[in-house]
Fold this sequence. Notes:
By secondary structure, this protein is of the alpha/beta class. It has a domain at 386-551: Glucose Oxidase, domain 1 (3-Layer(bba) Sandwich), CATH 3.50.30.80. Helix content is 36%, strand content 12%. It has helices spanning 3-8, 14-17, 23-34, 40-44, 66-79, 105-118, 133-144, 170-180, 186-194, 208-218, 234-253, 257-260, 263-276, 282-293, 299-306, 323-328, 331-341, 357-361, 405-411, 431-437, 474-477, 538-550, 562-568, and strands at 49-54, 83-88, 123-128, 148-152, 159-161, 164-166, 385-388, 395-399, 420-429, 449-454, 486-488, 501-505, 522-526, 531-534. A five-stranded mixed sheet has the order 11-10-9-13-14. The longest helix is centred in the middle third of the chain and has 20 residues, at 234-253. It starts with a helix and ends in a 24-residue tail after the last helix. It binds FE2/S2 (inorganic) cluster and magnesium ion (MG). Residues 62, 94-95, 130-131, 168, 202-203, 207, 209 line the site of FE2/S2 (inorganic) cluster. InterPro entries: Dihydro-acid_dehy_C (IPR042096), DiOHA_6PGluconate_deHydtase_CS (IPR020558), ILV_EDD_C (IPR056740), ILV_EDD_N (IPR000581), IlvD/EDD_N (IPR037237), Sugar_Degrad_Dehydratases (IPR052352). Residues 47-360 form the Dihydroxy-acid/6-phosphogluconate dehydratase N-terminal domain. Pfam families: ILV_EDD_C (PF24877), ILVD_EDD_N (PF00920).
Amino acid sequence: MGNSGQAKAKLRSRQWFDNPDNPGMTALYLERYLNYGLTREELQSGKPIIGIAQTGSDLSPCNRHHIELAKRTRAGILAAGGVVMEFPVHPIQETGKRPTASLDRNLAYLGLVEVLYGYPLDGVVLTTGCDKTTPACIMAAATVNIPSIVLSGGPMLNGWHHGERTGSGTVVWKARELLAEGKLDYEQFIELVASSAPSVGHCNTMGTASTMNSLAEALGMSLPGCAAIPAPYRERGQIAYETGKRIVEMVWEDLKPSDIMTREAFENVIVVNSAIGGSTNAPVHINAIARHIGVELNVKDWETVGHEVPLLVNLQPAGQYLGEEYHRAGGVPAVVSELMKHGLIREKALTVNGRTIGDNCRDRAATDGDVIRSFETALMQDAGFIVLSGNLFDSAIMKTSVISDEFRDRYLTNPEDPNAFEGKAFVFDGPEQYHKLIDDESLGIDEHSVLFMRGAGPIGYPGAAEVVNMQAPAYLLKRGITSLPCIGDGRQSGTSGSPSILNASPEAAAGGGLALLKTGDRVRIDLGKRSANILISDAELAERRAALEKAGGYKYPASQTPWQEIQRGMVDQLSEGMVLKPAVKYQRVAET
Ligand code: FES
Ligand code: MG
């Protein structure tokens, strides 16, 4: 590290460890950090103190590998002349946390903000992986704005079962159908599902984890190529080392999140998300990061910037392959390289390595053209989200890249009106009611029904449940009807291939139009016009609203924990990133 860089940065850790103006506090800060063997030389000779924000633990199997990787990161930090302070982040395990892991995204965010602000850290390595760990960490880095770099943990190896790839999450949806149809017994069901998790790492499909890690890279927050390396590969340990080295340089260069996470970088993220077939959770998390760094970004931008981008990455659930092929084919740099050829990347956006995304990714052509396609061989045109609105909600998104031929053939068939369908609404208030009622044949759900899930948004079901992609009743599955249209104010798993209309905002619990819907109403969805409406008169709608207000609004279950209640009182809607509203005004807090 050259002295010129050192001249630029003033280390904030000096306020703790080397402040002759306040010997009392300095001694107090210093003495306890000496007690496990650090020396005064390390703490007082002007070395950057680098945090490793550790998201791995026994409770977080998707990220647990970071405990091992941190050793390599540590070696990199030391090699570059830094001092390491590793600390735990509140665990967020997508598959283990009840009632839903997304409840904890904002809690982990808050905790990490306090740690980054309140302790003597000059820079931080954010260890990411499982779905919400990535946005939680980057949101906190955005708020505090100290030099920060993302280290993904990497996906698991590919799952295999009887010679076929089994992808995380995606196989669960399939296995559930087979179980419901009686084609698998309980033991076979578990065995099939477990085959998709053969090693350490996060989900190997293009679910929310691979999406968010790919997008962190596209945003410029990780080293090029970082997102896709499978967790057990040697390159994973190697990039952990490089990441550790790089964060020390970033501190000297004073390269901060606000230098990297610009409007241009967010537009790159939206484009890349379409090309990778990214999760419908991406707009929620990315919009949250944008709000915390203070960049203008809204849900409509996802359609405007991203809809016309083709699907290039052939990964489940939209495609065929899994994480190992994605990495071998070139990962994010290969995707960006192809997008650059077509003028879709804002090439000047800066990244953590100090170079632009254009310089990082130019001529990084895919090495397997079936896994990462060219525009000429794209899996689908217009693969981005569309944003719908109407009297049901102000906004909801739909991932058109997962609309199956079966779905198209059943619902989008009218030649005069090829993008619209009408159906009879069947409304569920929360996932528990859905599970209780769905298979009851006497309710009359058939192939002309449209399933609605409400009470599943950030307030109604604290954190917003991944429950909008509802499976059809078993009796319909047996007749080969596997996907009914689903609409709701919750989210859906990024590993699901369901063409749901989701993230409806405002949610029923916040007075959205979904609260006025009744089972039996006719609804009309026009994908071409981007509209979704209950087919009733404005007068009838107004009457229903008056009745709802008189009854005290939409009813949802009581909170089970203190945090549920606290978050419900201050959380914004999914379209706005589901952020804690009072948190947004705190920006660049390390400078205060
Ligand atoms: Fe953790 Fe998918 S459940 S990454
Ligand atoms: Mg998920």
